[in-house]
Amino acid sequence: MSTEAGAAAPAVPDRTPPGERGYTRIADRVVAKIAARAAREAIAPLPRDLDPPHATVNVRPRARGTGPVEDSPFATARVRVALELEYPGDIGARCAAVRRRVTERVGTLANMEVPEVVVEVERLRLPGERRGRTV
């Protein structure tokens, strides 16, 4: 079907306004996986003998009808990341790097505001320390 010169183009139906399109919900476990991956990226390279970081999240959906819809976060995520670090090292700087990276990645990939990232250092590993208990 071609249009002749001067003929009107077919009408495009009106688009549904963003606030009326529906609702997107991202599961907490997906946000936790994003946060754990971001923590791994922040402390990379991860030594083989360290357990990878894991995360838990508490996601609160954005209240409907509050503020502009376009480009606003879908929800607010409070994140807790647990990890092991090598010692000696700058623990504060590594925790700050994890906070920054988790905030950035969750904000970018899940379009969520992240007002709080708690970094819990579960264990410090000395160089050459083996896994598990030693007697």
Automatic annotation (TrEMBL):
Domain of life (superkingdom): Bacteria
Disordered: region residues: 1-24, 46-71
Record protein name field: Asp23/Gls24 family envelope stress response protein
Lineage: Bacteria, Bacillati, Actinomycetota, Actinomycetes, Kitasatosporales
